[in-house]
Amino acid sequence: MIIIELLLNGLVEGCLLALICIGYTLAYGVARILNFAHADVMIAGGGYLVLLLIAGDSFSTSICIGTTGLFAGAATIAIWPRRKLNGIIIWRKTLVSITLGLSVFFVTFLFAGKLSLLTATFLAAPLTGLLAAAIYRLGYEPLIHRNAPRMSILLSALAFSIALQSLLLMLWGSTTRAFLPDLLPSWLVVTHGEQGLAFGQSVIEHGLIPITNSISLPTYDALIILIFTVTVLTYEFFFRKTKICCGIIAAADSKIAARACGIPVDKMFTYAFLIGGALASVGGTLFVLRNKSMNPTAGFSVGIIAFVACVLGGIGNIRGSVLGAFMVSMILSLAPAIPLDDWANSHLTESLNEWLPSLNLGDWSYGVIYIIMIITVMFKPRGLFSE
Amino acid sequence: MKKRRLIQLLVIGLVMSMLFAGCPRTESVNEEIKIGVVAPFDGSNAHIGQLIMNSVELYFSQHQVANVPIKIIPIDTKSNPANATAALQSAIADSKLKAIIGFYHSSTASACKTIIQESKIPTLIYSASNPEVTSNAPYYFRLVPTDDNQSIVLADYAKQLGASRIGILYYADEYGKGLMDGVKQHSKEIGLDVVDIQSYDSSTNDFRPILTVMKGKQPEIIMICGFVEKSIAIINQAAEKGLKATFLCGDGTFNEQQLIQGTGKNSEGVYVAAPYVFDETNARNRVFLESYWKKYDISDNPQKPASWTVFAYDAAGIISHAIGDGKKERASITEYLQKMTSADFAYNGITGPIFFNENGDVEGRTFRLAVVKNQQFNALAN
User: Nearest chain B Cα to A342, which residue?
Assistant: First the structure.
């Protein structure tokens, strides 16, 4: 029974991780950038959603102004016109980007704290996408244009990650903000009632989907699986056939050839970051929903582990990195259940047990993941599922 | 032309140096004394550093120290031993730094041990409770009881609650591991069955796997040896999992404001150990709380600051008494502290009389337990 619960947990965590991995992989596959700032964009997105939901409560007005200002500025930068266009168009486009920035500022400032979860997600996702695009426009595009060495781009990515994290720390403070369930509809809040309730009642009143007598899945976990599936299916069957995606793929294949065919390469790269950022926002929303708390520094550890998952599965390859994410989350989830320490306690002498380090694999789960990654990279340098 | 410029510059330089030569040298009797406050001021625990700084500043804003100008220097650990040693190295190079009030995390206190012993700066510890911290460290003086005491208090209370099966979750650092070892050992001695031990660290956000495994082993009590942010997540996720065990938490979790705000109803009935629990019937406690709230928390429903703030306040008090006694050098302040060995030489702080044993640990103190009832910490009788 425990194994089923752990597998389910691994599946849900895998969905969350995979949403982040897709963003990493898009940035790497398209622009060859290891976008370290991605996980911080995710946390920014999750935090922004919390802001939209509970502004005025534990988020004071100054925090609201700061955060909406950040997103408004990002929106302006993201669609700021590039230089090469002729005078009149630049003027018009500049006006459009400033208007967008201002409207983002006023709309979110006016509606903060008055939105439902669904509308807030729909508002936060594109805006977080714009934040990711703005980071691309500011941090990577100028470097790519000047033919900067890979190392500079990598360091720029790291710098943006740390800068964004510090900015969020400044805006929100370092306390872990709790996201208490009274903001959510009752079907998303887990409460424990009596045993043996009807399916519908259990889902609607207690937020639990009964699977067997003793195991039930929280509705938000089911929601995470659902949203992930919908996102990936949309990407695979719909988005891949659109003009933008074809452009992104062409630009990724060969910048020069794509440019020769009249594809605006810079624009396509920006789109790739925008999509990655929007997915990260969905990931961040679900991350907050599942963990019920939000901390500006939480992105770092999530980002590293997502990055490892990408390398394991094959960075630059969406299917591979999604599978890598599931592998990593399954290892993290199952490791504490492997009864190596029980075996040691019953089979080894007490003095040997005292001398040995903890044999609980849960204590070593990250080590296990990294060892698997090293071995994988030794034999398949492009990742397990590379094509 | 160039030569002329050079001469001009030389003349200006000469005049300037003559001007400054006339100034009185600053080495007067009341030379400024700097006191370092070591805490995390940046990163995920920045709010804790702020609390510590608040209470040290509160002390010096209330008390004038024998006309000696005092300057408080923040030394930022960023919650991380490597950063702590680096920040400390550059801070102690300043010879005006005469004493340190320090260390939230035991891991940072241990990492900085050698540096502090070598530079001979008297250091008053307000939070780091791992017993190893003060061993072989003549310049460390600790105001809080150690984890040796805490693990006994926790395990004994678990037995008092009638439990026989306990599980331990610990944060994988010096504090968590040390406390876990202590609790494990003492539990075995008093006949409790430790059914499962699991660890987590700063990158753990999903505690469901370890909670699921633990649930399978059916402990009646789960001890959390870790810090409050993660304890909040553990308590919330355990409630969702339907785990029916009672939680007993180490003092890392003792932060009323954060715990209650973060867990809401889920924290009802959670026990937390603390080196000190505020008692509002005590006049000194009330004065401290009121002045603290007046300066830093003017909301309608002010929260009691976490217990190490009051230890930092007392540490500031001890240092300022030493300075007031004419001890203005690192060595003489250390001597003053080393003489505080019995109740006769004790400093009477908010937390009561403070004096140290030969190890530099505070004497006559013990951890206490508080239970969350009606969204508030209620101290249990000793």
Answer: B196
Q: Is B43 on the interface with A (CB under 8 A)?
A: yes
Given A173, A291, A362, which is nearest B233 (Cβ)? A291
Contact B209 A295 (CB under 8 A): no
Contact predicate A277/A28, CB 8 Å: no
In Å, how far are A12, A249, B301 from A139, measured between CA atoms?
33, 22, 45
> d(Cα B204, Cα B199) in Å, to the nearest integer?
10
Complete DSSP assignment for B244-271: -PEEEE-GGG--HHHHHHHHGGGGTT-E
User: What is the pLDDT at residue A61?
Assistant: 78
pLDDT of residue B85: 93
pLDDT at site A207: 81
d(CA B317, CA A16): 50
Proportion of chain B above pLDDT 90, given as a percent: 43
The pLDDT of residue A254 is above 90: no
Scanning the structure block, which residue is given the tokens 């956000």?
B205
The answer for B 2-41 residues in CB contact with A (under 8 A) is none
Asked if B34 and B98 touch (Cβ cutoff 8 Å), the reply is: yes
For the stretch B105-133, pLDDT in tens is: 999 999 999 999 999 999 999 999 888 89
B197 inside 8 A of chain A by CB: yes
| Interchain CB contact of A335 with B (< 8 Å) | yes
Give yes or no for a contact between A268 and A247, defined as CB atoms under 8 angstroms apart.
yes
Residue of B nearest to A175 (CA): B47
Decide: pTM greater than 0.80: yes
pLDDT of residue B22: 47
Q: Where are the beta strands (DSSP E) in chain A?
A: 177-178, 208-210, 216-218, 293-294
In tens, the pLDDT along B197-231 reads 999 988 888 899 999 999 989 999 999 999 988 99
Res. A217 pLDDT band, cuts 50 70 90? confident
Quote the pLDDT of residue A191.
80
Q: From the CA of B229, how many Å to the nearest CA of chain A?
A: 6
The beta-carbon neighbor of B209 closest among A181, A295, A333 is: A333
| Burial of B197 (C-beta count, 10 Å sphere; 0-12/13-18/19+) | buried
Closest C-alpha to B295, from B131, B86, B120, B58: B58
Residues of B numbered 70-89 whose beta carbons fall under 8 angstroms of chain A's beta carbons: which are they? Answer: none
B10 pLDDT higher than 70? no
Q: Which residues of B touch A304 (CB under 8 A)?
A: 203
Q: How far apart are CA A155 and CA A160, in angstroms?
A: 8
Q: How far apart are CA A25 and CA A35, in angstroms?
A: 9
Residues of chain A found within 8 Å of residue B229, distances taken between Cβ atoms = 176, 293, 295
Q: Is B198 on the interface with A (CB under 8 A)?
A: yes
Q: Is the pLDDT of residue A27 over 70?
A: yes
Task: Give CA–CA dist B54/B118, Å, rounded.
Answer: 29
| Beta-strand pair A216-218/A293-294 | unpaired
| Per-residue pLDDT at B316 | 93
pLDDT at B273 over 60: yes
Which of A1, A174, A336 is opposite residue B198, by nearest beta carbon? Answer: A336
Q: Which residues pair with B248 in a beta bridge?
A: B223, B271
- Beta-ladder partners of B39: B76
d(CA A341, CA B197): 10
Q: Report how far residue A208's alpha carbon sits from residue A202's, in angstroms, rounded to the nearest whole number.
A: 6
Chain B contact present for A178, CB below 8 A:
yes
Strand B165-171 vs strand B221-225: parallel, antiparallel, or unpaired?
parallel
Nearest to B227 by CA among B201, B196, B205, B265: B201
**ipTM computed for the complex:** 0.88
Residue A90 has a pLDDT of: 75
